[in-house]
Write a structure and sequence with these properties.
There is one protein chain. The chain is an alpha/beta fold and 146 residues long. It starts with a helix and ends with a helix. Strand 2 (57-59) and strand 3 (62-63) form a beta hairpin. The chain has six helices and six strands; from the N terminus they run αβααβββββααα. It has helices spanning 3-6, 21-36, 40-53, 109-124, 126-134, 138-145, and strands spanning 12-16, 57-59, 62-63, 66-69, 76-86, 96-105. Helix content is 46%, strand content 24%. Helix 2 (21-36) crosses helix 3 (40-53). It has one domain (3-145): Mannitol-specific EII, Chain A, CATH 3.40.930.10.
Length: 146
């Protein structure tokens, strides 16, 4: 699985302006709805249900909200670099500015875990994160991610 299997240029957002975790997840759910054809409210409810199990704010300014949904034909990813870090209830209690949202079909157990691992490995790379934070466009973000 390659990053280009998860992301398209349209699913990468630079300078997203949000002020809270809830607003961020609502905005990403709306955008995911356009990409997937799913109901935005159902996407948000799926992501919030996963957040109730434990935060997906993994530390070092990174969050990877994710969930599984019926009616998806493949795994979808959305990446956002926030214009200003926000509180995300992260494990290290640091604000988040890099967010990779992942939506997978209900039956995509192993592939979902492989995608999460790939994203986690990529965003654990400090050099990549520094370049993502210093990027000036969605196109540059997409190029770095893929």
């Amino acid at each position: 699985m390659e990053m280009t299997d998860l992301l398209t240029p349209d699913s990468v957002i630079d300078g997203l302006k949000v002020t809270s975790k809830k607003q961020l997840l609502q905005d990403l759910s709306d955008r995911a709805s356009v990409l997937t054809g799913l109901n935005a409210r159902e996407v948000l409810e799926t992501i919030l249900a996963r957040e109730r199990l434990g935060t997906t704010g993994v530390g070092q300014g990174i969050a990877i909200p994710h969930g599984r949904m019926d009616d998806l034909d493949r795994i979808y990813g959305l990446f956002a670099r926030l214009n200003k870090p926000i509180d995300f209830d992260s494990l290290d209690e640091q604000p988040v500015d890099l967010v990779f949202m992942l939506l997978a079909p209900e039956g995509a157990g192993a592939d979902h875990l492989k995608a999460l691992a790939k994203i986690s490995r990529l965003l654990r790379n400090q050099t990549i994160c520094k370049k993502l934070r210093g990027s000036d466009s969605s196109a540059a973000l997409y190029a770095l991610l893929t």
